[in-house]
Amino acid sequence: MTWVAWRQHRLQLLWGAAAIAAMTLFLVPTGLGMAHQFSSSGLARCLSTIGFPRCGDLSQTFENHYRGFSFVIPLFMMAPVLFGMFFGAPLIAREMDTGTYRLAWTQGVTRPRWLAGKLLVVVGAALAGAAALASLVTWWSRPLVANTASRFHPGIFDLRGVVPIAYTVFAVMLGVAIGALIKKTLAAVGMTLAAFAAVRIGIELFLRQHYMTAKRLTESFVFGPGKGGVAANSADWVISQNTIDRAGHIVSRGGGFDFSYLAAHCPAVAAAGPFPRVVGAIPGQVDPVPACVQHLGLRIASVYQPASRFWTFQWIEFGIFIALAIALGAFALWRTKRLS
Amino acid sequence: MTVALEATRLGKRFGKRWALQDCTFELPAGSIAGLVGPNGAGKTTLLHIAVGLLEPTSGSIRILGEDPGNERVLSRVGFVAQDTPLYKYFSVADMISFGEHMNSSFDVAFLRERMARLEIPFDQSAGSLSGGQRAQVGLALALAKRPEILLLDEPLASLDPLARREFLQTLMEGVADTEVTVVLSSHLLTDLERVCDHMMVLARGHFRLIADTSDILKNHKLLIGPRERAGAISGVEQVLHQSATDRQATLLVRTNGPIIDPAWMVNQVSLEDVVLAYLDSRSTADANDHDLHAVREVAR
Predict the structure, then answer these.
(1) Least confident of A26-35, A239-248, B40-49
(2) ipTM confidence score
(3) At the topology level of CATH, where does B3-204 sit?
């Protein structure tokens, strides 16, 4: 059975291997170049001693130099679903489309065994391809990620570690299940793309932040040169930041000040006017805002996932997509037994 | 008598339409049966149920004493679907390997020998085979399973007369001196007449006739006699078809005894006449032009 599956899908598998080889040819030299630049420019040392947001020009220069590589982000985001569209969707649908199921299912092999054999080859190949690509991308992007605030950013979290492998297995099983459901190859390919995008976006935007109870941090505003309203560590995944009053009510969203709110409560702020001024530009002038903030007891409340949870989140998301893939596999098996 | 294929009140519905209804029959092992009926009669549906590709809506079917599609019976059944599906991009050699990998016992030597004898090149892709070669590859793949029952769905439909003869020859050689049961469907009776010892006549989802061909020929007669007929004719069980000229009537009848009435001249019938009569007899009441056309095609 595995020979048959290999013979049937070898063209797709070889194309997939060629695509991964082409990516390798791009990633290895650029990755080496980037790593060299990263250490020789001193950015690596700066980041490891001082930390991300404070390496100023070094950071900026490096970022500007490699900005062109951002095109790989959508490309690698798409990679799992390509496996789903080209490996998964045709697996059953093509047999139905071309009528060859009448040949395959009347040999000496039962349908469950037939499906198991095909999945073994195709999912196995997808798994190997995804693992190779994910580890390559993880290695390649190391300097770029080090020079970024948080590893939780979309486009970083999704492309590194173990999640791309789970996305790929999920995409393949999604294609197989949709193909078994609608029995038309082309339609199954299109629906796989749409369904994959819907699930990925849904989980990324709405579910991921709830994998673990988020931490909360309430801080006072700190005023002075070089200080904004910094809350949690910048490597954390900040889910929300709000300005709250003494009673804990939200007075403005996003972690800044709402001038009209301050003006309504502090006459000095209202008198100074709504336009920002350079504090201390005029000697003897006192900025009325800090006093007002202190008077009202305004603080900044952040909800965030600590940077240290990165790998926990990776494995939780990995587990979710693998569980979905298993459920889709069970559906495909159930459906295959009843197809005609 | 062992029964190779046995259906009990078998029915299959697609949406609101019954493709097959209330079919009950037994096919003895070792028969070579022709499954005849116009297009859309339910032949493919019946064969697909028999090999486990379709689930019946009602009733049941047993093939070699087993439920279709289960592990024990799959390897004992040879099936060639309509239009002989093959993997287009597989070479003939790949198709041979396919059979080998998909069956626990598979006579590769037989298959290779057969391909060589038919001069089908091993490196040619299945998609580029001629209709005749394609049918031969499909048949040889099914025969190489050494099945106990072989079901062929319209194997001759796309073949020219020469290829038809070659195909039937291969088939008869393949099953000669074996106890293998063969069911082959066709909407063309003439193809089957030569090789079949059983006839299963199917129209609009119902069986009209299932019998041994020699019994069919023995039990059906063509009577020519007076136009005005008085009462029943002794020995006639049923009049299947009648036509009349000014002076005489021609009846196609099923007999249940010798016909000794001197008013009637008794003639032998051809299988084609009988099959046509059965297809025609019970459908005339609600037949439309399309059906009649289909029935004519059967007889052609």
Answers:
(1) A239-248
(2) 0.87
(3) Rossmann fold (3.40.50)
